[in-house]
Amino acid sequence: MNTILGYIQEIDTACLSILKNRKEIAKPFVEFLSNNPVDELVFLGSGTSCHAAMVAKPLIEDVCNLKVVTGFPTIFIDQTKKLNKASCVIGVSQSGNSSSTKKALAFSKELGVNTMLFTSNLNSFISSSTDVLINIDCGDEKAVAKTKGYQATIVTLWICALEYALTMNRIDEKVYTNYINNLEKTILNIPVIVQQSINWYNTNEKLLSNAESFMVVGCESQFGNVLEGALKLIETVRVPVAGYELEEFMHGIYNAITHESYLIYINHNSDYSERLLKLKAYLDQKTKNQFLIQSKSEYKEDYQNCLLDFINDKYFCGIEYIVPFQVICNYLPVLRGINPFISGDPNFHKSLSSKLV
Question: At what angle do helices 148-167 and 11-20 cross, to 10 degrees?
Answer without folding.
Answer: 20
